[in-house]
Amino acid sequence: MAEYSDIRTGRHCVFALHAHLVFVTKFRHRVFTGEHLTRLQEIMRSVCTDFETELREFNGEDNHVHLLVTFPPKVALSKLVNSLKGVSSRRMRQEFPELARHYYRANKLWSGSYFAGSVGGAPIDVLRQYIEQQNRPV
After folding, report:
1. Is 3.30.70.1290 the CATH number for 4-132?
2. What is the Cα–Cα distance from 12 to 14, expressed in whole angstroms?
3. Does the pLDDT value for residue 51 go beyond 90?
4. Entry's SUPFAM superfamilies (predicted)?
5. For the whole model, what pTM was predicted?
């Protein structure tokens, strides 16, 4: 059963929806430093807020990121993912021009695919611990 603090209410529903998302860089290029990951977290937190979702955990390595999000039933996860990837790619390209060499022709930072797994109840603590233990490059 989900923790009581994770249960949210909407106008006509009560819910506890969590998703583990993983985004991989295009061609798995080793792109990110700690500074990049910090900025990605800020950007993705802002996008989540716009969707009335919450970024609960974030971490990553030089070629991928992990997110744990909570979201209301009215949010289509695919639309959230598209916005997270699109906004973060555009802003990172603007703010870190040196990343341009990793953008192959189409000016995309992320691979077209992603992982989305539904999680809930007891596994959230395990998942949170897993994400916290991901290595951040220095």
Report:
1. yes
2. 7
3. yes
4. Transposase IS200-like (SSF143422)
5. 0.83
